[in-house]
Structure prediction request, 249 residues.
Amino acid sequence: MTDRLPPQHRGEKFVQTLFDRIARRYDLLNRIISFHLDTRWRRKAVRAAIRASDRLILDVGTGTGDLALAAAQAAMEPGGTIIGLDLSLEMLRRAREKSHRCRCAGATRFVLGSALSVPFKDERFDVVMTAFVLRNIPDLALFFRQAHQALRAGGRLVTLDMFPPPDSNFARLYALYFYRLVPWIGAGIARERGAYQYLSDSVRTFDTPEAIADLIGRTGFRSVALQKFLRGAVCLHIAEKRVAPKPEG
Ligand SMILES: C[S@@+](CC[C@H](N)C(=O)[O-])C[C@H]1O[C@@H](n2cnc3c(N)ncnc32)[C@H](O)[C@@H]1O
Prediction:
C-alpha cells in the first residue's frame, strides 16, 4: 500500500527498512550511478561550508558516513566532533566500520535517531548538514525547524541534494538515465529494483531548489545561499541561524 504513495510521504518506517536493505551495496551503487561525482559534490559541500573552527557538527541522515567522514578528514581541527544521525542501523554499521578504517573514529559518533525529532540539546551545534536526505523526509518544514533549534546562534545549515533539473536537452537526457535506467542498474547490481525506483522517483517528484531555499528562509534562517552543480541536478544550500539581537539597556 505504502508503495503507491508519493516518495516523500511513505514515512520513516518505509525509509528505514529500504536503507537497511540496500546498505551493503549503497556505496558501490552511488559511485556507479553518479560516475564517482557524488564524492566530489560532498567534498565541495565540505569546502564551502565547514570551517576549521567548527567544534560540533551534526550530519543528519549520515547513512554510511561519507559526508561526515569527508568533513572529519578535510576540514576539522583535532578535538572537533561530528555526530552522524540516521534511522537505519545497517547504514550506521557501515559508517562505524568506515570511520575505524580511516582513523576518524575519535572524531565521529554515530547515533540511531530521526531527523524529525533530533535527540540532542538545543543550540549546541556549529553546523547541521545533510547529503541526499531531504527527498526522504515527509515534513521538511519540521526538519528545518529541528535543525534551527539544534544550531547555536550564527551556526550553519548545509544541505546537498538532487533535484529535477530545469527543462533543457540535458534534462531530457538526464530523465532517460536517472528515471529509466537507474532502477535497472539497482536491479542488476543490488537486486533492488524497487528501492532504486523509489530513489529515482524521489528526485523526479521533488521540489525546485528555489522552493527549498524559500522554505529554509521561512523556518528562521537568513542569507540562504544556493549553488548548483550538474546544471541544477545537484544543489547545495547554505543558510545561517540569525543571532538574536541583544536586549536594549
Ligand atoms: C540517500 S542516503 C544518504 C546517506 C549519506 N548522507 C550520503 O551522503 O550518502 C539517505 C539516508 O538518510 C536516512 N534518513 C532518511 N530519512 C531520515 C529521517 N527522517 N531521519 C534520519 N535519517 C533519515 C536514511 O536512512 C539514509 O541512510
